[in-house]
């Protein structure tokens, strides 16, 4: 679970889509000027129209054609909640046949309830924590959605995109993760993955808006999320940045030394920066989560602790006290400065909630 240049141009209802999802053809493909193509997912958000079908997309190098809005959506796990939460925020629950994405808590006040209300298909996950191939192939979905390309890897016991296409089932991968689990990923796909950001979540909302013909709703939701993040950026601009550590005690299984999973990387670092802080491990490889040792954690500069929530019914205040006792040298330990977060620091549409909470801890009135 873990701002591109934008040029506005005249759009048709079949707005072009890129990153690693590109509009190929549609029923109105010739309505936009040939010499002025719009090439960003953000175009869907800036000038939303009705989708015209058939709609054909190039998604992670695979052509996918929709003759209408999907009616039976199966969401694979992929240890993500970005996709199901996007579906919920766009009000697409009635389209969900089955959802395999789950997270025990949420920064959004009603998200956990809304996700739990979705049908789960009665799936039993395989050893790779994913829906087995035979269950996906027999589910009678018309769209299977994965957070990463590896969600369709036969070596993991999963149904492939080719197998599903042969039975008339469309597949989509979250465009920012095309390179993840794809050995032959293109340079563009690798660049998109390395450039993951808060903006990536808006782009995925735009893709869903286009596919499900809810472009206006996607534009409204994205605009509000962006407004909230930018409002915090504006409030904290120019203030001294304090060092923030994001640690998930419930994910200690991810660390070889049994320490809380410390989150870093481009998206997590951006969430902290938007809140007016600096990740205590900013710029470090994502491997820091699994390899960090006690000495490195003790030596970190930590002004603000963010205790990450992974499971329900965990006393996060008690977890904060344990960390303060274990690492008394942190400034945060002396001042008892901390807040909590859960899914808002990961890829998904809830970054605004985490930015607001962290900003308040970092700057008081952020």
From TrEMBL:
Residues 1-31 form the signal peptide. Residues 75-366 form the Fe/B12 periplasmic-binding domain. InterPro entries: ABC_Transporter_SBP, ABC_transptr_periplasmic_BD. It comes from the Bacteria. Keywords: Signal. Belongs to the bacterial solute-binding protein 8 family. PANTHER family: MOLYBDATE-BINDING PROTEIN MOLA, VITAMIN B12-BINDING PROTEIN. This is ABC transporter substrate-binding protein. It comes from Actinomadura miaoliensis. The lineage of its organism: Bacteria, Bacillati, Actinomycetota, Actinomycetes, Streptosporangiales.
């Amino acid at each position: 679970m873990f701002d591109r240049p934008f040029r506005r141009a005249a759009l048709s209802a079949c707005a072009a889509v890129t990153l690693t999802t590109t509009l190929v053809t549609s029923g109105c493909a010739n309505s936009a000027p040939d010499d002025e193509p719009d090439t960003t997912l953000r175009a869907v958000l800036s000038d939303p129209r009705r989708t015209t079908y058939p709609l054909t997309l190039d998604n992670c190098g695979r052509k996918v054609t929709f003759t209408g809005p999907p009616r039976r959506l199966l969401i694979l796990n992929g240890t993500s909640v970005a996709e199901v939460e996007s579906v919920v925020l766009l009000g697409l629950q009635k389209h969900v046949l089955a959802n395999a994405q789950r997270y025990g808590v949420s920064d959004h006040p009603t998200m956990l309830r809304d996700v739990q209300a979705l049908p789960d298909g009665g799936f039993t996950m395989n050893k790779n924590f994913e829906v087995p191939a035979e269950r996906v192939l027999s589910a009678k979905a018309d769209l299977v959605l994965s957070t990463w390309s590896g969600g369709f890897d036969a070596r993991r016991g999963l149904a492939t995109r080719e197998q599903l296409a042969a039975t008339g089932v469309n597949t989509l991968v979250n465009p920012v993760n095309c390179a993840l689990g794809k050995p032959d990923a293109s340079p563009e796909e690798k660049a998109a993955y390395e450039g993951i950001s808060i903006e990536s979540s808006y782009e995925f909302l735009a893709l869903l808006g286009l596919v499900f013909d809810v472009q206006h709703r996607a534009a409204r939701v994205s605009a509000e999320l962006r407004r909230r993040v930018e409002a915090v950026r504006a409030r904290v601009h120019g203030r001294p940045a304090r060092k923030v550590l994001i640690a998930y005690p419930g994910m200690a299984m991810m660390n070889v030394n049994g320490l809380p999973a410390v989150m870093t990387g481009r998206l997590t670092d951006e969430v902290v920066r938007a809140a007016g802080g600096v990740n205590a491990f900013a710029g470090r490889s994502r491997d820091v989560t699994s390899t960090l040792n006690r000495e490195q954690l003790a030596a970190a500069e930590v002004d603000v602790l963010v205790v990450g929530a992974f499971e329900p019914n965990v006393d996060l205040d008690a977890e904060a006290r344990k960390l303060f006792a274990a690492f008394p040298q942190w400034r945060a330990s002396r001042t008892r400065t901390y807040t909590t977060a859960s899914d808002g620091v990961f890829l998904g549409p809830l970054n605004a909630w985490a930015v607001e909470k962290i900003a308040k801890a970092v700057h008081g009135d952020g």
